[in-house]
């Protein structure tokens, strides 16, 4: 049987690849990535309500994080095993801990003190992965650390001032209410700020400090905003607005009020 040129080329390529796969001194095209498993860590819940005031400095508390993970690699060329913490709060940077160290038997572990803001409560994600000498990245193993409180603690937020723009309000225009709120544990500890009226009674409305919603000007400055449209046929009257703030520690501010006149 005679082979065509195309068939001869295909056979030549096949033998060439086979020779490369089995020839001496060759390097595999790729190596399998490491595999991580069996993550264990503590604490799973850190109770801030048990922390003594003397153990916090500038609103910061140190938490001892212990973690261990099993790592396997086909060629035993582990370069490093990384662990990081992700905050539940938007915009917070990732906390990168020191690399885990080999404890023998394919187990890598770490014990490190990590600083947390006592106002940044919530479920933190702990994430671990490995990298080998060929820069292959393993799978990820994850867990959750509840940085919270079993009972209210700390200092309640304070409504420092309520502004009405314009005052008096004008029918047919927008009334912007701004509440300046502070919290001893930091602005990130403020969970929500609500506003409503007592005459006439209304439901509570959220106020915003995101630099976008409801006419808020600047994000994260502690000035919470809510905007209301005044009907064009609104008769002259005086309305009492009330504002209350709540923090992540379970505490509520005193209710503050402000009268606004519609001319």
Task: Write the SSE topology.
Layout: H1 5-22, E1 35-42, E2 45-47, E3 60-72, E4 78-86, E5 95-96, E6 101-104, E7 107-117, E8 122-132, E9 141-148, E10 158-165, E11 174-182, E12 190-197, E13 205-206, E14 223-229, E15 237-247, E16 256-262
Parallel strand pairs: 2-9
Antiparallel strand pairs: 1-3, 3-7, 4-5, 4-8, 6-7, 8-9, 10-11, 11-14, 12-13, 12-15, 15-16
Would you kindly provide a written description of the structure presented here, covering whatever features stand out?
The chain has 263 residues and is mostly beta strands. The chain has 2 domains: 31-148, Immunoglobulins (Immunoglobulin-like), CATH 2.60.40.10; 158-262, Immunoglobulin-like (Sandwich). It contains 1 helix and 16 strands. It has one helix at 5-22; strands at 35-42, 45-47, 60-72, 78-86, 95-96, 101-104, 107-117, 122-132, 141-148, 158-165, 174-182, 190-197, 205-206, 223-229, 237-247, 256-262. Mean pLDDT is 86; it is low at 1-25.
In angstroms, what separates the terminal alpha carbons? 105 Å
- Tally the helices: 1
The structure class reads mainly beta
Strand count, sense and closure of the main sheet?
5 strands, mixed
* The level-1 CATH class of the largest domain: Mainly Beta
Order of helices and strands: HEEEEEEEEEEEEEEEE
Helical percent range? under 10%
Specify the CATH architecture of the largest domain. Answer: Sandwich
CATH topology of the largest domain: Immunoglobulin-like
- Total DSSP E strands: 16
Estimate the global geometry from the Cα principal axes.
elongated
Query: Widest sheet: strand order?
Result: 2-9-8-4-5
For the residues shown, what is the average pLDDT?
Answer: 86
Give the DSSP E fraction (strand runs of 2 or more residues): over 45%
What is the CATH superfamily of the largest domain? Immunoglobulins
């Amino acid at each position: 049987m005679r082979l065509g040129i195309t068939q001869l080329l295909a056979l030549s390529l096949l033998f060439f690849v086979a020779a490369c796969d089995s020839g001496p001194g060759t390097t595999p095209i790729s190596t399998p990535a490491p595999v991580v498993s069996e993550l264990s860590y503590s604490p799973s819940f850190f109770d801030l309500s048990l922390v003594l005031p003397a153990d916090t400095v500038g609103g910061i508390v140190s938490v001892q994080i212990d973690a261990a993970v099993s790592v396997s690699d086909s060629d035993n060329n582990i370069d490093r095993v990384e662990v990081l913490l992700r905050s539940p709060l938007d915009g917070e940077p990732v906390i990168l801990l020191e690399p885990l160290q080999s404890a023998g038997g394919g187990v890598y572990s770490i014990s490190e003190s990590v600083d947390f803001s006592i106002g940044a409560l919530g479920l933190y994600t702990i994430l671990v992965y490995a990298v080998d000498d060929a820069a292959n990245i393993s799978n990820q193993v994850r867990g959750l650390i509840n940085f919270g409180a079993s009972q209210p603690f700390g200092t309640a937020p304070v409504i420092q001032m309520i502004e009405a723009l314009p005052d008096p309000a004008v029918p047919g225009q927008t009334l912007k209410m701004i509440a300046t709120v502070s919290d001893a544990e930091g602005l990130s500890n403020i969970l929500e700020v609500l506003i409503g009226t007592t005459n006439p009674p209304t439901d509570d409305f959220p106020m915003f400090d995101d630099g976008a919603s409801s006419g808020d000007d600047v994000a994260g400055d502690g000035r919470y905003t809510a905007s209301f449209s005044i009907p064009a046929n609104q008769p002259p009257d005086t309305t009492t607005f009330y504002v209350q703030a709540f923090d992540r520690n379970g505490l509520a501010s005193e209710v503050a009020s402000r009268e606004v006149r519609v001319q």
